[in-house]
Structures are given as structure tokens and as C-alpha cells.
Design brief:
Length: 148
């Protein structure tokens, strides 16, 4: 969404977390001021307004922080599932780096990859395409005959 581009998740979480903490501190200070005065008659209307604003701000910013944290966890799981689906479909391969870490990367796009991709796309859209076997035969035939 537009908000994700304007304010990336780590910045949003930092702002909402800091805002919620500031509102909580404001709430604690206002409550301590109210309780230390001893008499509610001395308090002004602005004291109660400040308390209400701080409580509402804390609740709202905390809710936004929690929603962003839940969205982050959901997005991580979606990425993991998408990556696994790509591995299962043959679009990604698992390799080991020079440091011994196992990672996955997208396969190089070549003739076979394109044919497999078109075949899978055709099956989902119910469109007739050549499969990988017929596609390989056709490719070899075209190379052999070398049409002009």
C-alpha cells in the first residue's frame, strides 16, 4: 500500500511504539499529579482532558503497533510459503554459499524454464500449451532444420 512506501514498517513501528510510550508516560504523570493533589476540587478541566488524550493516544498507538507487528509476522509467513512454492514448482534452487549457509535463489531463465512456466500457466488458464517434453522436441527440431 501507499503507507508502506511512505513509511516503511520499521519506521512505523518505531514511531507508534515511541508514541505509545510517550502517552503512557503522560498518563502516569497526570495520574500522579491528580493523586498527589489530594483534592479533586483543585484540579482543572485541562488535567482531565490531558488524561483522556493520553489514554486514548496510548490505546490507539498501541493498537497500531500490535497491528503492524501482526502484519509483519503474516508477511514473513507469506514470503516463506511463496518461496517454498517456488522451490516445489522448480523456479528456485537451493544452493550452499562459500560460508556454508544454505540459501535459495531463482533459477536462470532459459528455454526449459520458459516452456515449463508457459505449460503451468496454460493449465491454470485452461489454454493448450506444449509441455516440457514436446517443447524440447520442438526446440530440437527447429534447431535441426534451421528454418530461414
Amino acid at each position: 500500500s501507499f503507507v508502506d512506501y511512505l513509511l516503511p514498517r520499521p519506521i512505523r513501528k518505531g514511531l507508534t511504539g515511541a508514541g505509545a510510550a510517550a502517552c503512557l508516560v503522560g498518563t502516569v504523570l497526570t495520574v500522579s499529579q491528580i493523586t498527589s493533589s489530594g483534592s479533586l476540587g483543585i484540579l482543572t478541566r485541562s488535567d482531565f482532558v490531558n488524561l483522556g488524550i493520553n489514554i486514548a493516544g496510548f490505546a490507539l498507538l498501541l493498537a497500531l503497533f500490535i497491528a503492524d507487528s501482526d502484519g509483519e509476522a503474516k508477511r514473513v509467513e507469506e514470503r516463506r510459503a511463496k518461496k517454498q512454492a517456488q522451490i516445489d514448482a522448480g523456479y528456485r534452487e537451493t544452493v550452499t554459499t562459500t560460508t556454508g549457509q544454505s540459501i535459495s535463489k531463482l533459477k536462470q531463465v532459459d528455454d526449459d524454464w520458459i516452456i515449463k512456466r508457459l505449460d503451468r500457466w496454460g493449465k491454470t488458464e485452461r489454454m493448450p500449451f506444449l509441455g516440457p517434453t514436446k517443447g524440447a522436441l520442438l526446440r530440437d527440431l527447429v534447431r535441426e532444420k534451421d528454418p530461414q
